[in-house]
Amino acid sequence: MTGEKKSEWNSNLTFILAMIGSAVGLGNIWRFPNVLYSNGGGSFMIPYIVSLFLLGISFVLVEYAVGYKFKTSLSKILYTVHNKLEPVAWFVLLIVFLITTYYVCVVGWDLIYVILSFTKAWGSNPDIFFSQSVLQSSDSINGIFTIVPAVLASVAAIWFASWMILRTNLNDGIGKVSKILLPLLCIIVVVIVAYSLTLPGAASGYTQIFSPDWSALANPNVWLAAFGQIVFSLSLGMAIALTYASYLPEGSKLVDNALIVAFSNSGFEVFNSIGIFSILGFMALTSGIPFNDLVTEGTGLAFVVFPQVFNIMGPAASVIGPLFFLCILFAGITSIMALLEGVCYSISEKFNFSRKKSATVVCIVGVVISSIFATGAGSMILGVFDAFLNNFALLFAVLLECIIFGWVYDFDELIATLNENSRITVGKTWKAVIKCILPICILGLWIQGIYSTLSTGDSISITIMAILTVVLIIVPFIFTKLPARNDDFYNKIQ
Ligand code: PFF
After folding, report:
1. Ligand 1 site, residue 99, Cβ cutoff 6 A
2. Strands (E), 193-238
């Protein structure tokens, strides 16, 4: 970062592991199985694979090419593309930062469950335990004045860990942590899936996801769901791939790397869902609860259904339970580092902060905002943040990035950058995808997102969304107007 030697990955493997770590997160573990199941099971793999190649990998390539070519932060890149575009960078980064503030909180809940899982401390009613004992949820917004100490402590611990990683130099921080956590994550998932396949009822679970409902393919919402999963899972448009690629040394094979990362991420989520569904099949058989009622996503799956499963699993649960929650913890931490790195990098570049200083500022502000989610009204506010930021704000940001890099910037330069060292090259098809097909698909998802966000809104949610909208408009302009403390910031890169 600025004021220090420019960071560079010490090997291509470190870059690949950090990239896979950024992509593999909560979305792979608890979002994908449900999306797959509710959109046609086996037949969903067709729109999923099409979206992966046509849209996901295509957009990752844009981020790689831009990051690698400019070798700087998103704010400076957009300023270089056009001086009026700097606010867009801060807009994207603010969304990413706000998403991180609640993502950290969910990982914090998970940390609590890692500890609880050794003794199955959630008792015989995990549903009530989660909402009343862990979250201490209140129905009214007044709950915002009641701090939940255990959640706050756990959220602070995750922020502290993130700060420790981010303040350390690139290869000793993010690089080393990815090299340790990612192999551990893979081992844990293999153990869980292998064990889950031995459970009675497992086959009735995993065959559900792979038995195709071909009629679903005619439903445009299924295609949008596939694309939505790819956007979420590959963390598209969040300046992660762009930032990580800016640290690549000359001569890196960009296209090859993008393919490795995208396939690993998708391979992980498909493999992991075999385990999740086998376990749900076992639960359906043992408890008599219909399979449909068990397949849920998000916190309901991780903190309610899975503890119920561990309650009836017998002694193996005291090993599989902690492993399951550790898996979410490791996947979450590697994603949090990636989400924050791009934010810190832009702040460092513009304000001439050292890596340590920007990590400290970002993590302090982060812990303050996250503490809102560690209150009695926390889970309710978190739901509104998630719906608004993910379904609406982030998609708008991705759309803007697509238009900027596809239309405002000279796209042929990106093609040349990508093809420079790669064995697999890109050309006109890619250009057409980025310029036309991708923006249309994102627009479709965005309209669907606006509809679902607004249709679920009560007056409190609408108020929170209105506040977020104002913040998302004002703060990027303030950051743009603040004069750069690094003279070099306004020198456009050639
Ligand atoms: N791709 C990661 C995941 O699937 O969890 C990281 C991530 C994606 C975090 C999207 C947050 C988010 F909104």
Report:
1. yes
2. none
Q: What is the pLDDT of residue 5?
A: 67
* Domains of the chain by residue range: 4-481
Regions in the chain scoring below 50 on pLDDT: 2-3
CB 34 within 8 A of CB 206: no
CB 14 within 8 A of CB 261: no
The count of other CB atoms within 10 Å of the CB of residue 214 is 10
| 26 C-beta closer than 6 A to ligand 1 | yes
Q: Among 1.10.540.10, 3.40.50.11810, 1.20.1740.10, 3.40.50.2000, what is the CATH number of 4-481? A: 1.20.1740.10
- 29, 95, 232: residue to mutate for ligand 1 pocket, most atoms within 8 A of CB: 232
pTM of the model: 0.95
Note the pLDDT of residue 456: 67
Q: How far is the CA of 26 from the centre of ligand 1 (A)?
A: 7
Residue 48, pLDDT score: 95
- Cα 375 from chain centroid? 23
